[in-house]
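Minutes, project check-in
Item: structure for the 124-residue chain
Input as provided by the requester:
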Amino acid sequence: MLDGLRILVLEDEFLIAMDVEQLCRDYGAGEVVIARDLTEIEPQDVVAQFDAAIVDLMLGGASTRDFASALRESGVPFIFASGHSDADEIKASFPGVRLVAKPYSGDDLIEAVAAACGRSSGSV
């Protein structure tokens, strides 16, 4: 489903990040890079280096909304995966961007990433 995709994972919880990385690889992602802090990656670098992103709404207490806005402006498909969120606020600020709430199932997460990239598992 994610065959060959280069995916950025913005997640500050180490074990969750490792699980997401493994999930993406299990579903065929070509490269998975984890950033645990916004200072580790510049939004403009994402365009050249990644096909999609999985974005936690908060990294180390800092909001990732500005980063997500930059992704949207640059056309990089992404989803939010977060445990602390206001779904209505996200829908209003980022229409069409899927929010997968923690704790989430791996299938839900992968399906959301695939859908954001215009790929479908056939069960959507």
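Outcome recorded: The mean pLDDT is 90.
No further action items on this chain.
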